[in-house]
Amino acid sequence: MERKYLPVFGLAITLYVFSPCDAATSDSCLQLNNDAVKDINSQRWPAAIAKLEAALKVDPGYKLAVENLATAHFYFGKKLEAAGHHKESLKHFHRALYFLSDRNPTLLRSTVEEAINRTIEKLGSKPTSFADRVRLGDTARRESDLIGAVVEYRYALLLHDDSSIKEKLAEVLSHLD
Predict the structure, then answer these.
(1) CA 158 to chain centre
(2) Best exposed site among 28, 116, 150, 168 by fewest CB in 10 Å?
């Protein structure tokens, strides 16, 4: 496995370029992942995201593509945040958190959570407010942003155990995948 160190926004991140896929799909998965890494290196976030999503359609269990997808969403969210597009950046931060594994060598969960909380504040809400997190989840759900709804409902449940939110979360999760 080859490591590539990439300076992005003043941070050095590591992207793992080669990793085994399912044997039947390895060539296409590896090619899509490697092309996506090139896009990440060039800060072409939407292109990287599209290629990684395509790799995951071929092999949904391809963990490296999932980890790189989390990274691409996070840094695209940072770019959008810097440009003042907070609502759109929040969507990408949600996706970064959703796809983030605890083993991701590139990105820490706390970094993504801080970005989400910072963006929520910029949108005029309080990240520590149960009502605000539910409202954000409901808005995401209405806008068919199921991943955003999952992330926000989960945070709401961390703040307050509520059976109606558990039901909403279960309903949204049933529509994913």
Answers:
(1) 19
(2) 28
- Residues 29, 65: Cα–Cα separation, whole Å: 8
Q: Residue 133 in contact with residue 111, Cβ under 8 Å?
A: no
Question: How many beta carbons lie within 10 A of that of residue 114, not counting itself?
Answer: 13
Comparing CA positions, the residue from 34, 60, 51, 46 lying closest to residue 91 is 46
Q: 52, 39 in Cβ contact below 8 A? A: no
What is the distance between the alpha carbons of residues 144 and 139, in angstroms, rounded to a whole number? 9
CA dihedral sign of residues 114, 104, 154, 143: positive
* Residues written for the chain: 177
The span from the CA of 91 to the CA of 145, in Å, is: 8
Alpha-carbon distance of 31 to 69, in angstroms, equals 15
pTM of the model: 0.84
- Residue 72's pLDDT is 96
Q: pLDDT tens digits, residue range 52-105?
A: 999 999 998 899 999 999 999 999 999 999 999 999 999 999 999 999 977 766
Whether 117 has a pLDDT exceeding 90, the answer reads yes
